[in-house]
Design goal:
This protein is an alpha+beta fold. It has nine helices and five strands. It binds FE2/S2 (inorganic) cluster (FES) (2 copies). One FE2/S2 (inorganic) cluster (FES) binds next to loops.
């Protein structure tokens, strides 16, 4: 009698009446049989699984900064991920990824949207403008010029979103009334560096609500 069989025969439990080595062998065989059964079941149900996977993929076509782009995507891909991860357009920033910071703001069909909350599949065929599409060649957009002139950024992480929101704010008619109104309509764009006075000045100078110039010089 070997050591395993002796231990087993000393025991009063179920294992005790079935030598340990045989028990383990039995368990192994049972597990193998179960695996074979579930593998067969998986093979039998394969067509059903495939059909549940295939519809999560689709191909979409967007016009991004005047260029037509056709891209296969997973249905769950957000617009910010499509831009940054699939198309390597990293000008659009991902801050919170929850719709609260505005860093990911782009224009879709002329309206500002939070690209982290926009599923790319839902805007198939749309016209998208990102920060990369504002300048005309080497000529910056007037809002970009104003941000430079007004020193409207520090680390710059929020800046693409601020600029895209600022351009939309003017087009919506919210940047030529009171400063409070402009501030309110830019409030969805957060700046952790607190460059708010200079951002506001840049937006209002671009709209013509305030004269162009360095805000630091204008207040001194
Ligand atoms: Fe979209 Fe913050 S990353 S709102
Ligand atoms: Fe740094 Fe706005 S400039 S977050």
């Amino acid at each position: 009698m070997n050591r395993d069989d002796k231990k087993a025969s000393d025991s009063s439990g179920a294992i005790g009446v079935w030598p340990r080595r045989d028990f383990l062998k039995g368990v192994g065989l049972a597990a193998g049989a179960a695996a074979t059964t579930s593998a067969s079941a998986a093979t039998a149900s394969q067509p059903a699984e495939q059909s549940s996977v295939t519809p999560t993929q689709r191909e979409i076509t967007l016009t991004i900064n005047k260029q037509k782009v056709t891209q296969p995507i997973d249905n769950r891909t957000t617009l910010v991920d499509l831009l940054r991860e699939h198309l390597a357009m990293t000008g659009t920033k991902k801050g919170c990824d929850h719709g609260t910071c505005g860093a990911c703001t782009v224009h879709v069909n002329g309206q500002r949207v939070l690209s982290c909350l926009t599923l790319a599949a839902t805007i198939d065929g749309a016209d998208v403008t990102t920060i990369e599409g504002l300048a005309q060649g080497d000529e910056l957009h007037p809002m970009q010029e104003a941000f430079l002139r007004c020193d409207g950024y520090q680390c710059g992480y929020c800046t693409p979103g601020q600029i895209m929101s600022g351009v939309a704010c003017i087009e919506e008619g919210h940047a030529s009334g009171s400063a409070e109104e402009t501030r309110e309509w830019m409030s969805g764009n957060l700046c952790r560096c607190s460059a708010y006075p200079n951002i506001l000045a840049a937006v209002r100078q671009t709209s013509g609500a305030e004269p162009a110039g360095d805000p630091a010089e204008q207040t001194s």
